[in-house]
């Protein structure tokens, strides 16, 4: 009986691989063509795919020039009805003369040979792109037709390749089959795993042609280039604001929706950004990861460290357009500008008094509440403001940080030094409205005014003279 067979149809047995560049996973799949760790995508699939139910295949005599290391006499099965002989599907009697890779049948060997010859006999009638396998052409055609025959049973998303839906299912199952041996981090897709490994290797293969900055991922380079081009392709439909990255637009939309998906497990406070939650958690942990190299002072956020560095550098890059006064922080400039505009945006809800700064409003509210949150550890006396407590503490410590440049006398408070300096200058800024006598201290003027009131008021003077 003849064992000659026609070549199997590729339409009846599709190859479960995918064409490079065809994407359905929003930019993820296009980088994942080696996700399943295939060394040769089309070498071992075809007539014997995962869809085949046959455990045995008909024996075919190797053609001339094909190496065979299989003993078909000892490892064959003969059908008792028709006499045909079959080999177990695990045997690979057909070998490649170039790379010595072996295959289960001549069909797969012929397909594999095109890897070495570069032959692409199957062409697309739409875009003239050519392929080495008919199944690749079939999948490519879906790019033009828009056909997506593979659907997810959970979310209904459709894909044009079977391998894409297999990978998509990891989104639902949470499976992360690729793990880093160095830090233990795991990934759903091999392309992400390979990109992650560049962090440990320090590899940055993608460079910017403008500023020569280098990146470990091509996507990071694409986003960086927009810094130079000024391109902002993502726009908000509500306010029109535009962004150079889609993720920035997504975060911005929470301003309009009020969404705060990130919550603190300690105090239940919620945030719209993961970074805000991360910074907030330092309030509970006391962590201060940012330290000053000059004085050692530490801060919970990097912005605070940057502002602090101005204390050491004395740099004041922000200038007022009205009076020319300069500031180390833009927030201080914005506050100062209100001096010229008269703006007082912070109002008291009790007495309607308004203030330039929120800190001033906070201090003012103590007037209504009577609260004295600052207490002395030595005597227990309480104060409305921390500055008052610091001044009071010098009573116990004996500290006198303010010294007179004329006589070297020292004082615990700057106000006392200011009063003392009038002894040397002869300044008397406080004057009586009745007799025009002047005094160096306000307390002296008050005592004088009491005497003047008595002398100019006969009724009051008579009462004082009555025993």
From TrEMBL:
GO terms for cellular component: nucleus. Gene3D superfamilies: Classic Zinc Finger. Residues 94-121, 122-149, 150-177, 178-205, 206-233, 234-261, 262-289, 290-317, 318-345, 346-373, 374-401, 402-429, 430-458 form the C2H2-type domain. PANTHER family: KLUMPFUSS, ISOFORM B-RELATED, ZINC FINGER PROTEIN. One of its GO terms (molecular function) is zinc ion binding. It comes from Acanthochromis polyacanthus (spiny chromis). Transmembrane segments: none annotated. The keyword Repeat applies. This is Gastrula zinc finger protein XlCGF57.1-like. Keywords: DNA-binding, Metal-binding, Nucleus, Repeat, Transcription, Transcription regulation, Zinc, Zinc-finger. SMART domains: ZnF_C2H2. It is found in: Nucleus. Belongs to the krueppel C2H2-type zinc-finger protein family. InterPro entries: Ikaros_C2H2-ZF, Znf_C2H2_sf, Znf_C2H2_type. May be involved in transcriptional regulation. Residues 1-75 are annotated as: Disordered. One of its GO terms (biological process) is negative regulation of transcription by RNA polymerase II. Residues 22-39 have a biased composition (Acidic residues).
């Amino acid at each position: 009986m003849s064992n000659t067979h026609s070549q199997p149809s590729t339409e009846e047995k599709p190859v479960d691989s995918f064409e490079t560049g065809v994407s359905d996973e929003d930019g993820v799949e296009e980088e994942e063509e080696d996700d399943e760790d295939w060394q040769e995508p089309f070498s071992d699939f075809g007539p014997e795919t995962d869809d085949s139910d046959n455990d045995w295949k008909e024996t075919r005599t190797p053609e001339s020039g094909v190496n065979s290391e299989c003993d078909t006499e000892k490892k064959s099965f003969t059908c008792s009805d028709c006499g045909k002989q079959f080999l177990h599907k695990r045997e690979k009697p057909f070998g490649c003369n170039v790379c010595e890779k072996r295959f289960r049948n001549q069909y797969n060997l012929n397909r594999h040979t095109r890897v070495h010859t570069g032959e692409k006999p199957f062409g697309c009638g739409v875009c003239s792109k050519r392929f080495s396998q008919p199944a690749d052409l079939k999948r490519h055609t879906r790019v033009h037709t828009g056909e997506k025959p593979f659907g997810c049973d959970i979310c209904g998303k459709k894909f044009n390749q079977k391998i894409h839906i297999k990978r998509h299912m990891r989104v639902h199952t949470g499976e992360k089959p690729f793990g880093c041996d160095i830090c233990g981090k795991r990934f759903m897709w091999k392309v992400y795993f390979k990109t992650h490994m560049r962090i440990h290797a320090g590899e940055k293969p993608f460079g910017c042609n403008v500023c020569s900055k280098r990146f470990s991922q091509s996507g990071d380079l694409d986003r960086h280039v927009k810094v130079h081009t000024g391109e902002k392709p993502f726009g908000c439909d509500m306010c029109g604001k535009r962004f150079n990255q889609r993720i920035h637009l997504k975060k911005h939309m929470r301003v309009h929706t009020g969404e705060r998906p990130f919550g603190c497990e300690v105090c239940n406070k919620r945030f719209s950004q993961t970074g805000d939650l991360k910074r907030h958690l330092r309030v509970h942990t006391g962590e201060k990861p940012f330290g000053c190299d000059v004085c050692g002072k530490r801060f919970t956020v990097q912005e605070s460290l940057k502002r602090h560095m101005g204390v050491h550098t004395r740099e004041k890059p922000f200038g007022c357009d009205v009076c020319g006064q300069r500031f180390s922080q833009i927030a201080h400039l914005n506050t100062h500008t209100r001096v010229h505009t008269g703006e007082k945006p912070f109002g008291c809800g009790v007495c309607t008094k308004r203030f330039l700064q929120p800190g001033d409003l906070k201090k003012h509210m103590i007037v209504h509440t009577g609260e004295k949150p600052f207490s002395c550890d030595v005597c227990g006396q309480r104060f409305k403001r921390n500055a008052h407590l610091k001044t009071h503490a010098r009573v116990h410590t004996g500290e006198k940080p303010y010294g007179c440049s004329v006589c070297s006398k020292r004082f615990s408070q700057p106000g006392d030094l200011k009063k003392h300096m009038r002894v040397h200058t002869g300044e008397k800024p406080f004057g009586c409205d009745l007799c025009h006598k002047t005094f160096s201290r306000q307390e002296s003027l008050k005592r004088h005014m009491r005497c003047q009131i008595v002398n100019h008021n006969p009724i009051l003077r008579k009462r004082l003279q009555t025993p």
